Amino acid sequence: MRSRVKRLLTPVVNHLLTEKLPASAAPAGPRPAVYRRILETRPVPMPAQSDLELHMLVSERDFLRSIWALKSFFHYSGLPARLVIQSDGSLTPASLDHYREHFPGCSIHADHDHVVRDALAGHPLCQFFLGHHAISKKLLHPLLLSRADYLLIMDSDILWFRRSEAIADCVRDRLSFYVDGGTEAYARNRRFMETALDLHPARNVNSGMIGYRRTAFLHLPFIEDALGKLADVPRDQLLESIGYIDAYVDIHAEDARATLCWWVMEQTIYSLLMGRDQGHRSLRSWSHWRPFHPMDETHQFTNTPVMKKTAMIHYISDATHNQFFPVGVEHLLRRGCLNQWSSPGSIAKPHSKSRP
User: Fold this and answer.
1) Nearest CA among 301, 270, 136 for reference residue 202
2) pLDDT at 124 > cutoff 80
3) pTM summary value
4) pLDDT tens-digit readout, 23-57
5) Residues 231, 129: Cα–Cα separation, whole Å
6) Other CB atoms within 10 A of residue 247 CB
7) From the CB of residue 63, how many other CB atoms can be counted at a distance below 10 Å?
């Protein structure tokens, strides 16, 4: 009976909530040549001065994806951020030139590791993290190199579809925020961090889209101490401590640092910094959608449809799901974004509620 009701209700729910676009426009397969036409759209000039910065860590592999992510952000978000591109070390000179061409006035950090390393003098574990994994640049470089006080950190696998009033309000009020990921992917598990390490992360932090005041998060002694606690767990507690595991983690290694997934370390530190900030906002994702608020703007993750109120979708694990281009970008294409973004005056102006 329940499945029968669900079958009857699904078309109604889809009609009311999902954005309708002509199915006939959907291609038979990926269209890389069409996706590269984003490089023919007009530039988005950056503000000469702004106390709001958007930081993105990018690899060469994700270059084209990042251009789509950024163009959709500047078109739909209405936030007057100045862009800062952080290379993981693999971006080519041609790709760096593309960022300068498409986002004139942006800042590019391609060879600033020595500056950050010098700023980390007296914090050996922070320096170790910097040299050990490129993901450290998503945490340490914004904290130490930014010129603005309020920072947005966005991954290159996010597409925007409309303005998020919730995020704009956090920016306006200078409140730290993150989108609730529904699960916790931390270097050590929550229970162990709280009971054994006296560390208290915010719940379900996904650092793909976060915002915070730099001066509120720039606590190098706290970050150094947290890294020490996370990295140097006593041998007899290692199995109890295991958090997120990827292919490079050896939970039986003699070296405690080899039992850590360093790929989620910046997310873990961000969750701890959020946990110290009693005023932080956790924004609901579509997976935590409340049925009695069906028209709320939504912040979503992979395997969810573009709703009428979808603000952004984070296409996590896209190497597995393959949805960023054939689903998300194709949806923007069916909206006519390439024509809109190629014509003068097409990029949305910053909303009056979002102060610089």
Assistant:
1) 270
2) yes
3) 0.90
4) 445 566 779 899 999 999 999 999 988 999 999 99
5) 10
6) 6
7) 19
Task: Look up tokens 């925020």; give the residue.
Answer: 177
Q: Would you give the end-to-end CA distance of the chain in angstroms? A: 54
Residue showing tokens 């294409």: 333
φ/ψ of 50, rounded to 5, equals -160, 140
How many C-beta neighbours within 10 Å does residue 191 have? 10
Using CA atoms, how far residue 34 sits from 6, 74, 75, 95, 226, in Å, is: 38, 20, 19, 18, 46
Closest CA to 204 of 317, 84, 287: 287
Q: Domain 41-333 belongs to what architecture?
A: Alpha-Beta Complex (3.90)
- Helix, strand, coil shares of the chain, percent, nearest 5, are 45, 15, 40
Q: What are the pLDDT digits (tens) for 268-287? A: 999 999 999 999 999 988 76
Question: Cα Rg for the chain, rounded, in angstroms?
Answer: 21
Across the beta sheet with 107-109, the strand order is 107-109, 82-87, 52-58, 150-154, 205-213, 177-180, 281-283
**CA 97-143-350 angle, 5° bins:** 60
Residue 263 has pLDDT above 80, yes or no: yes
DSSP codes of every residue in 144-197: HH-SSSEEEEE-TTEEE-S--HHHHHHHHHT--EEEE-SS---SB-HHHHHHHS
DSSP label at 285?
B
**How far is the C-alpha of 256 from the C-alpha of 234, rounded, in Å?**
8
Beta strand 205-213 with 82-87 is unpaired
Output the CA–CA distances (angstroms, integers) from residue 270 to 75, 173, 218, 299, in the order listed. 27, 20, 11, 19
The pLDDT tens digits of the residues spanning 78-94 come to: 999 999 999 999 999 99
Which tokens sit at 175? 């409140």
Identify the three-state secondary structure at position 126: helix
